[in-house]
Amino acid sequence: MLIGYARVSSADQNPDHQVDALVRAGVAAENIHVDHAGGAKASRPQLDLALARLREGDVLVITRLDRLGRSVLHLVTLGAELRERGIGLKVLEQGIDTATAEGRAMFGMLSVLAELQRELIVAIIFMPQPFVRDVGLQHAC
User: Does any domain span residue 68?
Assistant: First the structure.
């Protein structure tokens, strides 16, 4: 089964273009879940519902990666969780489909980027604060 997920960042934004793209990709309208929340917001009840509905062999369909995750690390973690459960992920605009070798490779690359991001943040945290301030890294975390 295809389960779709769409998210808009604020209540005044319209998710219709995302929903239309999901329907065109074969997701039944009754299987599309939409959240109206910012990416950093922890509570996304429709995503939680979509994830709970997914079973082995199902595919989660989204329009863009940034609609799904709050960070690269969150995306990679969620991708690994889906893989462990035998669930596919299809990202329409980026052409990612974890049923293919290329799609799995893309998630592998995201894993590397997530690890790099984490290491850079840790390095900045442990730098002397005057240096961090002088080179403008205080906003990098």
Answer: yes
